[in-house]
Amino acid sequence: MDAITGAWQWLGTAANWAGEKGVWHRLGEHLWLSGLCLLLSCLIALPLALWLGHIGKGGTLAVNVSNVGRAVPTFAVLVLLTLSPLGKHGDWPTIIALVLFAVPPLLTNVYLGIREADRDVVEAARGMGMSGPQLLRRVEIPLAYPLIMTGLRSAAVQVVATATLAALAGGGGLGRIITAGFGNYDTAQVVAGAVLVALLALVVEGALVLLDRACDPMRGRRRGPRKRGQGPVEEAPPAPTRDVSTGQPT
User: Per-residue pLDDT averaged across 169-190, rounded?
Assistant: First the structure.
């Protein structure tokens, strides 16, 4: 309880938010690093997953190979890259480690989304004369959109949370607040830094959920033709019939 109270007091101190070592500056570094790593991951994983899912060949091998990366601790990769010649080139060890960490969920979800698209719809579109690129853009990607966004959200939250390790390699970001707290034996500062990272991850998740709902190309179709707030459509009662021999209604 004392650590939580101390963290609250640390966050409420204006001096801790200003300057190059303040929260705002560290937050900007964290967002820049996370955004760059996520962008590079998308540039690598999305075209490959879309192409493999569309042609239906080699995808299983690519997904299995990428998933092997999940078994390797990101911290271990970061340490090895930092000790290599790349360690002399600023944030590149951190960027490479985070990209390797973010590619598997993107590649897996996008590939599965394309492959699990309704085959009847895909074949019907192909029968209408759509070319391969048209089929991918107008049919397969809209059908795979939920899984694509799930992979993007998963990768984004993982990158935001794991970018904290950049501080251990001399990089910037909110992790520097935590490492500084450890260095000063300031438990309140350590807890405050951890809270900031957790809040940022939640904000990123919420923003991507809103983006998902706003950009869904099949939002209206998935919701159905019935407008929100309307009750179920009632069927009209069957028309009365008459007995042919007596003329009386049945």
Answer: 89
User: Angle at Cα 183 formed by Cα 23 and Cα 196, nearest 5°?
Assistant: 30
Whole-number Å distance between alpha carbons of 151 and 110? 7
Cα separation, 112 vs 14, in Å, equals 48
Burial of 54 (0-12, 13-18, 19+ CB in 10 A): buried
Nearest alpha-carbon partner for 183 in 206, 249, 175: 175
Nearest to 173 by CA among 188, 159, 191, 152: 159
Share of the chain above pLDDT 90, in %: 33
Give the amino acid at 150.
T
Predicted confidence at residue 1, as pLDDT, reads 58
CA distance 94 to 148: 25
Q: What is the mean pLDDT of residues 151-176?
A: 89
Half-sphere CA count of 217, side-chain side, radius 13 A: 11
Task: Tell me how far apart the alpha carbons of residues 168 and 83 are, in angstroms, rounded to a whole number.
Answer: 12
- pLDDT for 237 equals 46
Q: Using CA atoms, how far apart are residues 125 and 132, in angstroms rounded to an integer? A: 10
CA distances from 137 to 42, 116, 125, 216 (A): 17, 15, 11, 14
| Cβ pair 217, 145 in contact under 8 A | yes
Q: What is the pTM of this model?
A: 0.80
**CA torsion, points 1, 183, 35, 79, in degrees to nearest 10?**
-120
